[in-house]
Amino acid sequence: MIDDIKKSTLEFIGSQQKSEEVYFSFLRHLTTLCIGFLGLLIGLKPEKLPNHYSELLFFVTISSLSLGILFLSICIFYETKNARIEMKVRRQFIIDYIDNPSDNKFQIKQVPKGFRSVFEVISFGLLISSILCIIVYSYFLTIT
Length: 144
Description:
mainly alpha, 3 helices, 82% helix
């Protein structure tokens, strides 16, 4: 029975680590993609925009995309910060277990997420709004 619990616990820890690695990789790739898209938008912008609406939408698109990249970068920072905090917590668990194995058999402390969830919602909201704005911008650009 204890071997089954140990095996299940190790499988859970492995899947949790894989999930965190995949999510961190997703954030990194999304940031890289957004930066490339921002460069492409700025590089392919016509010299003169045909109307006021397209100028305004271009500004809103660039602004929301840039802010989305900023908040994605903050999310990546929090991911690395939480990984360091978790490493310190795990190290303290080992030290406590070595000092007193009978009292420290079950380790339940969780690493707090902090403001990371808020920054994730903001960044994804900004990126979605930039996509919607680029669609409307394209419409107003081709109208005239």
